[in-house]
Hints:
Helices cover 22% and strands 42% of the residues.
Amino acid sequence: MNFREKTVQKNYVYRGKIINVRCDDALLPDGSPCKREIVEHSGGAAVLYVKEGAVLLVKQFRYAYGEELYEIPAGKLEKGEDPAVTAARELEEEAGLVPERMEHLFTLYPTPGYTNEKIYIYRAEGVKAGHVHLDEGEFLTSAFYPLQEVQNMIARGEIKDAKTIVAVQHILLKQLNMR
């Protein structure tokens, strides 16, 4: 069976700097009409950097959740920007580190039920010192945490960010497969 739904009309409710919100008229696979609420987002890129068995994490307050979260460095894609460039830029902006190479690990669909956002996850290699230069209105700290401690933080529910959890689990699985 074909599960594809057909867009009849895109109806924009809100257009903002970071997101657009639509309430589309669509048709289900059987031809029945339906509404689809969509949050358009340009996407983001995140970077996993592991140095001597320790993972770089940033800690920042996330207004939508009302709490401070641990995350791998990440940021929003600028229009037409290569996700690898975004990831490298965020690594320098947030942690003062400049990668020589970026390896694309995977692309994550964080919330497929209502948004088209994609997050491109990279691994940084050949990293050298640069300069921290946070965006205006951005407040965060960065630090390295031993991989075992990061695993424990995930298990205790201290790390809640999906892209960070998936990236860390990815490297742990790779390590297991290399044995």
